[in-house]
Write a structure and sequence with these properties.
With 303 residues, this protein is an alpha/beta fold. The protein contains 10 helices and 7 strands.
Amino acid sequence: MESCTGLAKHQTESLIPMIDLHTHSRASDGTDTPAELAVKAVSAGVSVVALTDHDTVSGVAEFLSAAEKLPLTAVPGIELSSMLYTKEVHITGLLIDHTEPHLLAAAEQLRVWRTERNLQIVEKLRQKGYDITCEELLAEAGGESIGRPHIASLLVRKGYFQDIQEVFRRLIGRGMSCYLAKKFLPPDECIRLIHGAGGLAFWAHPLHAQHGAKSLLRKLGCRLLNEGLDGLEAYYPSFSEEQTAETLAFCTKYQLLVSGGSDYHGMIHANTELGIGTGTLNIPESLYETIHQTWLKRHEKTL
């Protein structure tokens, strides 16, 4: 757990102006390098930021190194995708040891599955007349966690489409002709891997695109709770006040931790900014303090 012991070195007794516990870099499907993300966080007035790239921790070392030179508390994290009751569920891990062998092995398996999927999607696109190669896709991504946003970006750069959203609408979005479902780890394994890496596990955007479905929140939330879930992400750019209130109520009822973040991806979602999301996100400053204190208590015998 040595990699996490210096996390609070930039924290002071003063109030934290802004926190963001859900961001992505070029190591997965963002457009900023991990170091650039750290610098941009400080410029945006964010003093605590978590890097939670999809299914990879390859950018964490660079992110933490960059933060050492900045007035920034950098939180190592990951976002793992899963499936529960036919619903895609994302589990973010915060305060993880990004060098933990079992987590690294799982990330490698996910990378293999992702590569197989990308090859099939590229072949489908080539059959439709789009002249792209896997080599070009690797160059476009610049990281090991390559996904559909990189394919869309490549097609835009080569002049086939006006923007990334159009590529998803017409070709690679769910249900479109070149879409392929991805393989998932079961949610209990995601939580187990995060805990094994010393981190805390959160259900990311639990009501995202669910239109405030309380019954779904209870059904999936209680199942994840039984698997050892530590908390929920209650503050998210697309959440209405009602959805945030529903999520907070669930956390209160089951004594779960609360997280929040912008889900920043850089220029891929250009209207989403660090700290403030689409402009109205307001994550309480005390959330990270509670999360960090919980983490410290869990590891007080090993720190």
